[in-house]
Amino acid sequence: MPIFRTISLYLFTIIFLGMSVIGCSTKLPEDVKPTSPKPFTYEKYEVSTGTDKNQTVFTGFLSDSTLAELAVVNIEKNSTRRLRIYAYKNGTWELTLNTSLRPQIRFVDITTIKGRDRLITYEHGRLNWFDLDSRSEQKLLNITTNYNMIDLDKVSHIDITRDLNGDGLDDLVLPDFDGFWISTQLNNGSFTDPVKLGPPEPFLDKTALDQNRSYREVGINELTALWYLSRLHQMDCNGDKRTDLVFWNEDHFDAYLQNTHGAFSADVKTFTTDVTFDSDGAYAIAFDFSGENMFALMVGFREKTKRRILHTFQDMNTDGITDMIIHTLEGRSIGNQRSTYDVHFGIQAAEGIVFAEDVGMTIKPRGTAGGLLPWGYASYWLQDFDNDGDLDFLFRDVNTKITGMARAMVGKSIAVNLELFRMENRSFPEKPTTKRKIRPALDLFETERVFFPPVLSGDVNGDRLLDLIVGKNWSEMHIFLGEQTPKVFAKKPQKVIVTMPNDERNIWLVDLNRDNKKDILIKNRSVTQQNQVTMLISK
């Protein structure tokens, strides 16, 4: 049935392409009177980046400039990997570099090496870094992972950079079928030889949902890389104040302890927990649904299921010890699941960290969750929004029922609900502290695009309070400025006229001038004209 297939593809898309959000904080007196927050003032810049179809855009301080450069990578018709760098000079953005990369580059990233941002490129068998002075790529590491390009006309941006050992330097982590390649950066800017740590991927030879290919055949790609990386956890396992690497391995944890030199031991230490859960990472649910009838799975004509998932590790009660967060998903439809987040407090014992079997605190959003978080359009942020030292929980959900699908298919817009929970006396309230309903206008005359309101969080005005940035419609953005009040955000938004992207992954926050304020960067692709990058740089 064509109409059912259309609905199926729509729901499958919104389940797989969302991002994520969560939170918690301390109660403020109800009689606190909000002061007018400092408005978001900005300089607006627009850069035309050519007409190439699949452009990967990112920023970095690639030179000694006070303003970050804009880098664009794409594949031309002759398969040439093209790199363009734009820099702000003489009051305008200029093309300062136009060159080709090595012919087999599959993905790119930005890594800070010895104080300067470097473009990192991966091809089968090696990682390179781009030397801006010689305008050429230099070998960084010999390393091989099973990465597949989804689109042979696109070089994707894969985030393989993170500080693994807590020394303030960027390290590298590449997922593979049988573990994770780990390479840490030394003080002189060099990297250690890669070592493979962690257990193999447990679902390699299984199929997800109604796919015909196994997870191994799909391989690591732009989408599944997020699934692989979600299996890597960081915590202090033995109380020595150093961050260790931890993986769930069937029925126990594998821990690789950090030594005094910032490296990780290849000798695995194991420990167990009395906290029960069904799987590590929400992506595992995709394999639980394998073989089920897709219509019944989407509309809920099936028995209700309940799954407890190891979500993440985070110090929720600020006692310096990592706590375990379990995410429970319950429901009949893959796109309409109820969420509960249970926190099991960590206890430092002589043999290492132990997690309490009893639940220490619970967060229960009223909205529904997609069954494949964080790729479903129910997502969360766990951040300290009001700068009071405690975490806050912000939950976003989208109606994926028939009514929500009809709104998207007919009205070409998606409604979003936001719920903020603040911690009070080391617990979360049953009801959200703050709610926002984002209802874009219906557009019955739109024939192609569906407007999905992007949601971002960051300090854009420099007052050390996180602000809420929301796309209102195709030409307007709303900023709810942060306030140190029980409601956390201003009631009325500041309106900014700017073209919104057709994919929320094409708008992000980044500090472009190192002033500790987030700037807003938007990438818009045009079918008939030049692609455009818009920057709103905070003043």
Question: What do you see in this structure?
Answer:
The chain is mainly β and 539 residues long. The strands form 9 sheets. Strands 19, 20, 21, 22, 25 and 26 form a 6-stranded mixed sheet that branches. A hairpin with an 8-residue loop joins strand 27 and strand 28. The N terminus is likely disordered.
Keywords:
539 residues, mainly beta, five-stranded mixed β-sheet, 6 helices, globular, disordered N terminus
Count of beta strands: 37
Radius of gyration: 23 Å
| SS strand fraction | 35-45%
Number of helices: 6
**Main beta-sheet annotation:** 6 strands, mixed
Structural class: mainly beta
Q: Percent range for helical residues?
A: under 10%
TL;DR?
Strand 11 and strand 12 form a beta hairpin. Helices cover 8% and strands 39% of the residues.
List the topology elements.
Elements lengths: L1 H15 L25 E7 L7 E5 L8 E7 L5 E9 L2 E9 L6 E7 L2 E8 L1 E7 L4 E8 L12 E2 L3 E2 L8 E6 L2 E5 L11 E3 L17 H4 L5 H6 L3 E3 L8 E6 L2 E5 L12 E3 L7 E2 L4 H4 L5 H6 L5 E10 L8 E11 L2 E9 L1 E4 L2 E4 L5 E3 L4 E2 L8 E6 L8 E7 L3 H10 L4 E7 L11 E5 L16 E4 L8 E7 L2 E5 L13 E4 L9 E4 L8 E6 L7 E7 L1
Parallel strand pairs: 6-10, 19-20
Antiparallel strand pairs: 1-37, 2-3, 3-4, 4-5, 6-7, 7-8, 8-9, 11-12, 12-13, 13-14, 15-16, 16-17, 17-18, 20-21, 21-22, 22-25, 22-26, 23-24, 27-28, 28-29, 29-30, 31-32, 32-33, 33-34, 35-36, 36-37
